[in-house]
Design brief:
The chain is of the alpha/beta class. It has eleven helices and 14 strands.
Length: 370
């Protein structure tokens, strides 16, 4: 069993990360050649999920910013892109990008389905994927990610509960049977198996009234929920009606859960969210140039999805690709993944970089506790 070192970036009004004072010199007319051409594959955004386009926009914004401005040794890249909304489209466009442009490195993600399609395609074609949103799937051979995986998030939640509520806190673990939620639960179980008093996993329907009653009867200290927003809201209300008081409520997942939280649920004192999204550190040297480009190009301030994707691209161009000493090949890019290192706090979200060669995950990934 390998050990994970994750940075928990605490947002209590202030982001705690390393401050930077480097002055950037941006050149719109640089004639420095690009190191290689990469393929970008992200969702375009649909009527139901319009914000997913931000993953693509964040990646493009960071590549353009680093190409013009650089950052202590970052390299220049060219890119070609294609949009994919689901697994099948992701597989198809990777084949097209390789056939038409001979790309050896794909940057992409934006949804679990797209990321899985990209991973399967790059394995089939034996090229490299840098997955910037989901943190998985990774394998250490063809697929890598700077973002925390679901299992890593579970390990960190377990550590957080032990350090915050103690070794004797009684925990209720409730999760949806989707793969990512199950992997989060597996990480939590690894850390807290002796403290989990109630474990409830469900596929479609969460019996909130029954669970709330069990939480009260078992005198649970901490509820951990890895589920859809509507299920979380129903359980919160059911617990209030059952007078099932707890010391902590931890939601693991999409940051959208906390938007409009007070309007939906009223007093939410004691509620904590742990997720992988954040706005990047405004003290970072590249931040303002990235934000300026994004606003000019896309007409709005970058959201959390754009920041997550941009941060992943930054780690690639600043720490991974500079390891390439010869003409880029699939094998030299793979070796660069293994060799790249960055201290916790060096990344734009407070993360570091150290790829685990066995599985392709980042052992210095960051999470946000709010």
């Amino acid at each position: 069993m390998y050990r994970f070192l994750l940075a928990c970036v605490l947002f209590l009004g202030i982001m705690i990360t390393t401050a930077y004072s480097q002055e950037l010199s941006c050149d719109n007319d640089s004639d420095e050649p690009a190191l290689l051409t990469v393929g970008l594959v992200f969702p375009s955004g649909t009527l139901i999920t319009p914000n997913r386009i931000e993953y693509y926009e964040g990646a493009v914004g960071m590549m353009d910013t680093l190409n013009r401005c650089g950052d202590e040794g970052s390299v220049r890249v060219d890119w070609v892109h294609a949009f994919a909304e689901d697994y099948e489209q992701a597989v198809d466009v990777v084949h097209e990008l390789v056939a038409e442009h001979d790309v050896k490195l794909i940057i992409g993600g934006g949804s679990s389905a797209v990321s899985t399609g990209l991973a399967d395609a790059v394995r089939e074609l034996d090229i490299i994927l840098w997955e910037t949103s989901e943190g998985e799937p990774t394998d250490g051979q063809n697929t890598f990610s700077p973002t925390s995986s679901a299992y890593q998030r579970g390990l960190t939640v377990g550590d957080f509960i032990r350090s915050t509520y103690g070794d004797d806190a009684k925990v209720a673990l409730i999760f949806n049977e989707r793969e990512q939620a199950s992997n989060v639960a597996r990480g939590i179980r690894n850390q807290l198996d002796d403290q989990i008093t109630i474990e409830e996993h469900y596929e479609e329907y969460l019996s909130t009234r029954e669970i709330a009653g069990n939480i009260r009867q078992q005198k649970i200290d901490v509820v951990v929920l890895v589920a859809f927003q509507v299920d979380a809201d129903y359980l919160w209300r059911a617990m209030r009606q059952a007078d099932a008081n707890v010391r902590g409520w931890i939601n693991v997942g999409d940051p959208g859960y906390r938007y409009g939280l007070c309007d939906r649920l009223g007093d939410t004192d004691g509620l904590i969210t742990i997720h992988r999204f954040a706005v990047t550190n405004p003290e970072h040297a590249i931040f303002h140039e990235f934000a300026r480009y994004y606003q000019t190009e896309f007409g709005r301030y970058p959201g959390e999805r754009a920041h997550l994707s941009a941060s992943g691209v930054y780690m690639l161009m600043r720490y991974v690709l500079p390891q390439l000493e010869n003409e880029p090949t699939v094998e030299t890019i793979r070796q660069a993944m293994y060799q790249a290192t960055a201290d916790i706090g060096d990344g734009m979200m407070g993360e570091g970089l150290q790829i685990d060669a066995e599985n392709g995950s980042n052992t210095r990934a960051s999470l946000v506790v709010q």
